[in-house]
């Protein structure tokens, strides 16, 4: 009888512990979160890597793009639509450098030196995206989401109005670039604030290159279209 009572008591205790371990909700951090407010604010910092997509007039060797990691920072304005949708405005400043390596075939029949085969493209963008964020239901202290939208970027280093072109060593781009953006991330609810790591791809819609005065320029003559694409890694604090 004692053995039977012991087994019964142990079984009840085990069931109770198991139920608490697997069914009991964790304590929710940030019990009055900012995502319950109609308007909330924050900031972000992160890293970026920009690239170029080229379309060519003739079938020559590709222009190679040497990508480097850049840095960015900015502000977040968030408007709550409902429990699952938010409209966001995330203005920021983005710094990046891309190096273009031309093949010698672009200079067929022309005199050139090694410096003519390389163009360094430094860009400082004021990036202005309008995004729609679609989230899942909050699960304990985290909430996954996807995000997408459109943006415009003002390139402060474009050289668009510079009278010098590549013949004088100046690679020129359009000042305004228009993008569409897609990404995903996770909101983590910490004790006093919300921390959000996310990754986003950006894709230019318009042609960005400013062509040289010479229509047969080895630097721009074979480019039918040049468009920026990039990846952003953001760390947001709200």
From TrEMBL:
Signal peptide from the UniProt entry: 1-19
Keyword vocabulary terms for this entry: Signal
Tagged with keyword Signal: yes
Listed Pfam families: OMP_b-brl_2 (PF13568)
Domain Outer membrane protein beta-barrel intervals: 37-209
Name of the featured protein: PorT family protein
């Amino acid at each position: 009888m004692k053995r039977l009572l012991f087994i019964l008591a142990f079984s009840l205790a085990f069931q109770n512990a198991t139920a608490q371990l697997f069914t009991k909700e964790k304590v929710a951090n940030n019990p009055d979160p900012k995502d319950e407010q109609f308007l909330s604010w924050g900031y972000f910092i992160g890293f970026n890597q920009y690239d170029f997509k080229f379309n060519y007039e003739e079938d020559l060797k590709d222009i190679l793009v040497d990508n480097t990691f850049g840095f960015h920072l900015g502000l977040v304005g968030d408007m709550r639509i409902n429990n699952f949708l938010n409209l966001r405005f995330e203005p920021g400043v983005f710094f990046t450098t891309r190096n273009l390596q031309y093949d010698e075939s672009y200079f067929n029949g022309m005199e050139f030196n090694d410096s003519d085969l390389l163009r360094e493209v430094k860009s400082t963008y004021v990036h202005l995206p309008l995004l729609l964020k679609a989230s899942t239901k909050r699960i304990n202290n985290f909430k996954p989401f996807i995000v997408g939208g459109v943006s415009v970027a003002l390139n402060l280093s474009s050289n668009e109005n510079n009278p010098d072109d590549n013949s004088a060593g100046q690679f020129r781009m359009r000042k305004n670039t228009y993008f569409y953006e897609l990404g995903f991330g996770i909101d983590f609810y910490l004790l006093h604030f919300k921390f959000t790591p996310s990754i986003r791809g950006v894709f230019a819609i318009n042609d960005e290159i400013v062509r040289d005065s010479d229509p047969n320029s080895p630097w721009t003559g074979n480019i039918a279209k040049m468009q920026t694409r990039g990846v952003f890694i953001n760390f947001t604090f709200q």
